[in-house]
Amino acid sequence: MKKEKRKDREDRQICIVFATALLACALLTGCGAAKEDNLSQGIALVEQMDYEGALTCFEAAALNKEDMRQVYRGQGLAYMGMTDYENAAASFEKALGQSSPRPDAMDYDINYYLATAYYRNGQVDKAIHVYQAITDLKPGEKTAWYLKGTMELEQGSTDAAKADFDKAVEAAPNDYDIRIDIFCSCSKYGQDDLGKSYLENVLDGDGKRISDFDLGRISYYLGDYEQARTSLEKAQENGGAEAASLLGQTYEALGDYNYAASVYNTYLQNKTPDASLYNQLGLCKLKGGDYEAALAAFQAGLEVEGNTATQSLMFNELVAYEYLGQYDKAKLAMDQYLALYPDDEKAQREAVFLQTR
Q1: Superkingdom of this entry's organism (predicted)?
Q2: How far is CA 173 from each of CA 22, 141, 203, 242, rounded to the nearest angstrom?
Q3: CATH number of the domain enclosing 155
Q4: 115 with 128, same domain?
């Protein structure tokens, strides 16, 4: 369960919110209807994961000489969705070429996407260079320091990574999210002691002043589940979905899957539906052998509008079909999954297994 949580924190999914009164008309008439419509429709299609359709709209927008920085950025996002990271990087580079000498918020946004495209394309050095360029201009950009440090860890440069992580914490000393992200990255690359130090320093310095929620989640990631349970129980009444999720995962770590499921269910029945919690409930039910309930939870999560857990939910749904012996449905779900996430190596291996069933 802890690995699932870490993976969720590492995932950086594209989320675009864009609305226009002419969108319904544009969807009916197709690209090229009127100037500026192509760009807005292309962005909407990226949100809908229709990447090929989006590229068609962006091409029309370029012919209409719409906002070219936005056009190239949109093309980059579409290529990212298609896992064509080489063309994505080229598009983001073109977008930056349209910028003014003084960088603005969109330039930083594009640079983050560019670094991701480089990284996904196996060009880790280039990704590091982009993050360095960001921090040169904005020394207090904690996210760039953190991501640069993670890239350094991947290359085996532990000292350089630590220096970057220290800069991230220095930029936001009371941001416990960034410390947890650092811990998860360190754990992923076998540097557990380094990661733990960033959390233990909080307990040593602020342990008596931090909230029950923060004490609970830090204790959870450090593996002190008894303390995590005590603190998260106190935080649960006023806590959100993350507090419920971590409390449930704490009970799972302690071996009490029934109570963990009740924590998830109680929140979902009394609060706003949360896709990540449905996902966690499904995983808990899978581990407990209740595959029908697991499948229902994953499917309920997929029904939540605007969720950022779609990839995990789709994959776990097909796994539930496998456990239920419904291999035809699992194969169909796998085809749909790989159409959206073709570079998922774990899913590719699972697809080979399914072909033998």
Answers
A1: Bacteria
A2: 45, 13, 13, 21
A3: 1.25.40.10
A4: no
**What is the sign, positive or negative, of the torsion defined by CA atoms of 94, 110, 82, 117?**
positive
250 lies in some domain: no
- Within 10 Å of residue 148's Cβ, how many Cβ atoms? 27
Statement to judge: residues 140 and 109 lie in one domain: no
Q: What is the pLDDT tens value at each position of the chain, 357 positions in all?
A: 444 444 444 443 222 222 222 232 333 334 644 556 899 999 999 999 999 999 999 999 999 999 999 999 999 999 999 999 999 999 999 999 999 889 999 999 999 999 999 999 999 999 999 999 999 999 999 999 999 999 999 999 999 999 999 999 999 999 999 999 999 999 999 999 999 999 999 998 765 689 999 999 999 999 999 999 999 999 987 778 999 999 999 999 999 999 999 999 999 998 889 999 999 999 999 999 999 999 999 999 999 988 889 999 999 999 999 999 999 999 999 999 999 898 888 999 988 888 887
Q: Select from 190, 210, 230 the last residue of a domain.
A: 210
Cα radius of gyration rounded to whole Å, the chain: 22
- For residue 128, being part of any structural domain is answered with yes
pTM: 0.84
Domain of residue 109 covers: 15-121
Q: Give me the CATH number covering residue 33.
A: 1.25.40
